[in-house]
UniProtKB/TrEMBL annotation:
NCBIfam families: 2A43 (TIGR00951). The keyword Signal applies. The keyword Transcription does not apply. GO terms for molecular function: L-cystine transmembrane transporter activity; symporter activity. Keywords: Lysosome, Membrane, Repeat, Signal, Symport, Transmembrane, Transmembrane helix, Transport. Pfam families: PQ-loop. InterPro entries: LC_transporter, PQ-loop_rpt, TonB_box_CS. It is found in: Lysosome membrane. It is a multi-pass membrane protein. Belongs to the cystinosin family. This is Cystinosin-like. It comes from Drosophila kikkawai (Fruit fly). Gene3D superfamilies: 1.20.1280.290. The chain crosses the membrane at residues 136-157, 177-197, 220-240, 249-273, 279-297, 309-332, 352-371.
Length: 406
């Protein structure tokens, strides 16, 4: 009995010793994998001209050796740094405060360098500095941003309401709707991918080490909401009166080309020929193309019918408001940050906004000037094919006019 108790105690002692050694090894391994690094309290700072802001450099744990830190910028005349060089001593818990002075408006990257053996410790020491001319312009830009976000988000509902009130979708071009739902689906795919999927975020960070994720939560909300609202409108097309309207063969052909681009790029990403981030970029390029062409079918349909009945002008007015404020925000930011290159050097975003606003103006001219009498005569608010009335005795039929093909 005593022998059994001794053996049991021996087993317990050995088990406890093994567990202690295992825990010690785990802790040691964890410490070995944690690299001492210097970092900053903020990676994004806005400073006004001739004003000062600060950021703090500190260590995430005690350093094993002294580190001589030298700060540098990608532009010498936009801001001043004090100090530019400092020593961070080993075993210290001190914080080094750096003062930024705004000299000229613009965007500046502040990074740090050290000797080769300490370079890895400074990878997280970087600050994106925005030097602005006016704080008032910053607030105005923010207000413009929220107003155009709301305007664009609400712009889908006037069309939904007019369809519900009329119990008809006649006058609403189906090609426009089809292109719209495809575009917003791809836009949602891009936004959700970069916002929710960590692997894609890591890919983006690897390409842009000091860059900021371009997708924010409001981008995700807008794209998903736009897809939802467009889906509601499409459902209305199945349950309300639609006459002879249908998606044209030209639209099917365009969508077929887009489908080939998306499927092929997805296959290449799945086969590791390209990165999944590249696939998302290709989806965004398709969305941009759709944004350029999607209004053409509706404009042609209004022209052929000589009427805008069934096409909500509220949608256009809100879209015009959003597009105009979006461009004004870009112009304000260009002036405030002396960043005209973002508009004229890479004109894609500004050009798309301008293109949409020009289409909105054309739609307003159709509604309020060119076909205003046709709208006034539409007392029942149903689709009126005025071309048929003007061309009685000719071979054209109302069905040919309302098909909206192009």
């Amino acid at each position: 009995m005593n022998n059994n108790q001794s053996q049991t105690r021996m087993h317990r002692l050995l088990s406890s010793l093994c567990l202690a050694l295992l825990l010690l090894a785990t802790v040691s391994l964890g410490n070995a994998q944690t690299t001492s690094r210097l970092t900053v309290d903020s990676h994004d700072i806005t400073v006004l001209l001739h004003s000062n802001e600060t950021f703090v450099v500190f260590a995430n744990q005690l350093l094993d050796n002294d580190v001589q830190v030298t700060l540098k910028t990608d532009s010498e005349n936009h801001l001043g740094l004090d100090p530019v060089t400092f020593l961070y001593p080993a075993g210290s818990t001190q914080n080094q405060t750096v003062v930024i002075t705004g000299l000229n408006a613009g965007y500046v990257q502040v990074t740090a360098e050290a000797t080769a053996e300490n370079a890895e410790m400074l990878e997280d020491v970087f600050v994106r500095v925005t030097v602005a001319k006016s704080r008032g312009l910053i607030y105005t830009s923010i207000v413009f941003g929220w107003v155009y976000f709301v305007a664009w988000s609400v712009s889908f509902y006037p069309q939904i309401w007019i369809n519900y009130r009329r119990k008809s979708v006649e006058g609403l071009n189906f090609d426009f709707l089809t292109l719209n739902i495809v575009g917003f689906t791809l836009y949602s795919l891009f936004n959700c991918g970069l916002y929710f999927i960590e692997g894609l975020q890591d890919e983006y960070e690897a390409r842009h080490p000091h860059g900021l994720n371009p997708v924010m939560l409001n981008d995700v909300f807008f794209s998903l909401h736009a897809m939802f609202a467009t889906s509601i409108t499409i459902i209305q097309c199945f349950i309300y009166e639609r006459g002879q309207q249908k998606v044209s063969f030209v639209a099917y052909g365009i969508l077929g080309i887009f489908a080939v681009v998306v499927i092929v790029s997805a296959g290449l990403a799945g086969g590791s020929v390209i990165h999944w981030l590249d696939f998302l970029y290709y989806c965004s390029y398709v969305k941009l193309t759709i944004t350029i062409i999607k209004y053409v079918p509706q404009a042609l349909m209004n022209y052929r019918r000589k009427s805008t009945a069934g096409w909500s002008i509220g949608n256009i007015l809100l879209d015009f408001t959003g597009g105009t404020l979006s461009m004004l925000q870009m112009i304000l930011n260009g002036h405030n940050y002396d960043d005209w290159a973002s508009i004229f050097g890479d004109p894609t975003k500004f050009g798309l906004g301008l293109f949409s606003v020009l289409f909105d103006i054309f739609f307003m001219l159709q509604h309020y000037v060119f076909y205003r009498h046709a709208k006034e005569q539409s007392s029942s608010d149903l689709t009126i094919v005025t071309e048929a009335a003007q061309n009685q005795g000719k071979d054209d039929s109302p069905n040919d006019v309302t098909n909206g093909k192009y």
